[in-house]
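Suppose you are handed a protein chain with no further information: no name, no annotation, nothing but its sequence. What can you learn? This example shows the usual starting point.
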Amino acid sequence: MIIKPNPLVNLHTHTELCQHAKGRVEDYCHVADHLGMEVLGISDHTPLPDGRWPGERMHMNELELYCKQIDRAREKYTTLKVLKGMECEYDKKYHSFFEDVLLGELKFDYLIGAVHYFPHEGRWSRVFTDMLDTSVFLSYSKHVITTLESGLFNFIAHPDIFGYMIPDWDENGEACARDILAAASELNIPLEINGNGYSKKKLITAKGPRFRYPWFKFWEIASEYTIEFVANSDAHKPSRVNAHINDAIRLGEYYNLSPASLLIP
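A reasonable first move is to predict its three-dimensional structure. Written in structure tokens, the prediction is:
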């Protein structure tokens, strides 16, 4: 099926298995069905074969449970298209796990690429805590591009999240944005405008408060490239299953970005 940005479509949700969200798969489907949504993608943070970053993702031995919950929801909610996905932190050492196990053996419908962690000066840095200086942006953009080039992912989640902790735009932000946008345009991989950022506490800047993400400056520059966008809520509890998707769509339209047409089985 072809999926385009739509208030009745959400491909980015998280369940209690990731340890920082609430609700089971069925809880999300119940709310989505009640709201008349058409497509709901379940896309929890993927477990990783080496158990890395265990405090914010399911464990490998919970992967079977995750798949069973989605299968049961598909049987119960027949008027709702329920898709099986994962939000993935890319590392070349995991490539075969994503490709052969998730997409192959377990027949996942789609994978989201996301960069919450990235290599910097010999260690893995974290977007929400370690990006306190814009000099780190180059390492972040390099890893986003590596994720794009893997060819595994249907779209990249919140590519503008690099400004989560840094209030003001500078030449490093400009370079980071342009590197990511040029790669996404060349590879024809959509980027996500993430609705979850609209509910976060705003960041105080010299020009006044702004959303931590979507970072409007990033999307303004995106209008200079051939960029396709998707719009999702990134829900971490069932009641937010469609939260701010309309806002994300309006932002993409405001900057004249092209809505993506995702081909999902």
